[in-house]
Amino acid sequence: MQVVSARMHRVRQSLVHEFRTSSHQKSYLEHILIELHDRDGAIGWGEIASPSGPFYCPETTDTCWTITEKYLLPGLIGTTWQHPAEAAGTWAKVRGNPFAKAGVDMAVWALWSLVEGVGLARALGGTRDRVVAGVSLGIEPTIDDLLEQVRRHTDAGYPRVKLKIAPGWDVEPVRAVRERFGDLDLHVDANGIYTDSEDHLAALTALDDCALTMIEQPFAPRDFASHARLQAKINTPVCLDESVETVDDLRTAIALDAIGVLNIKVSRMGGLTPALAAHDVAQQHDIAVWCGGMHEFGIGRAANVAISSLPGFTLPSDVSASAKYYARDVIIPEVIADHGVVIVPTAPGLGHQIDTDFIAENTLQSATVGR
Ligand code: OSB
Ligand code: MG
Questions:
Q1: What CATH class is the domain 3-117+356-370?
Q2: How many Å apart are CA 1 and CA 357, to the nearest integer?
Q3: What is the pLDDT of residues 38-55, one digit of tens each?
Q4: Is 221 in the pocket of ligand 1 (CB under 6 A)?
C-alpha cells in the first residue's frame, strides 16, 4: 500500500460535563483528525487525542500539529508498505511524541483493515464481540455533586466507576461513594500528584481499606521507585498510566515490581502497533490490562473499542458511549453502551461512517500534506 496524500483537521468539541483531574481541567477539546488517502482512493481516519496543554503529558495540540505535518506524514507519504507495523517504521526515528504518532498509526490501521476487508478489531487480533465499558469521573465541586454523577452513570448501567483523586479529595469522597453504592467496582486515578511525604502516604494507605480494584498512577510518571515501594505496602493493585509511554517502560515497571495493572492508552503509547506489543508483554507477565481513554472523539474511541476486544483486556475499559462525552459525535453510528456493554463493529475498517459535514463545521484549522 501507499499513502499519497493526507489531510489534517483540528476539530473542537465541547464536553457535556466539565472534567477536572489533579493535573488539568477542561470543558472542550481540540483533537487533530488525520485523513490518509491511498493510491486507489481508499481513505483511513485516525485521531490525535492530545490534551491542549502540557499537563497530562509533555505534548500539546500545537506540538502534535507540527510534528505530524513536518516529520510523520512526509516520511509516510510515498513509501510502499504491506502491513501497519511496516508503515510505523517510517516514523521510528522520531523520538517521543506518542500522541502525534498514535493518530497517524490509527489512520494507517483503519486504512489497511478497510482495504483488506476486515474489521479493525479482527485485524488487531481481537477475539471478543463485545467489550465492557466503565466511566471515569472528574473531581467535582462537592461530594454531593460526585454522588450525583456516580448515580447517573450507575443508573445508566455502567458496572465500573473510576474517580479522580488529589490530596484533599481522596479518602473522604471515596468512602462516601463506597458507602452509598455498596460493592460497586470502583477505582481511583491520581494522575501522578502524590509524593512519598508522610501525609500523602497516609492517604494512599487509607485507600487500601476501600476495596478498590486499583489505584492508578499515584506518583509522577518516571517515579517507578515510589510505585514499587507503595505496591509492597498495600494489597490494592497499583495501576500505571502516565509512567508507561513505551514497551521498555513497561518492562522496567515489571522488573521493579512497580506495576499490578496496566492501563493501555493507544494515544499515550504511540498507536495501535505499540499498544499491541504492550498487551503481549503484559500477558506474558500476567499483568491485567484495560484500555484507558483521552476523551476521544468517535474515531479514537472506535480504535479503543477495537483493541479492547483483545484477550488480555480483562478489566472494563474507558470506552464509554459517545453521549457520556459529547452532544454529537464525528462517527455514524455513534458509540453506544447498553448497561456498559459496547458491541464491537465487524464491518471493514473502523466500522463506522465518518461524519465529514459535522467535522467540517467544527474545524478550526486544516492542512494538506502530499498531493
Ligand atoms: O488519566 O485516564 C486519565 C482524561 C484525560 C486525561 C487523563 C485521563 C483521562 C480520563 C478519561 O480518565 C477517560 C475517558 O476517556 O473516559
Ligand atoms: Mg489515568
A1: alpha beta
A2: 28
A3: 999 999 999 999 999 999
A4: no
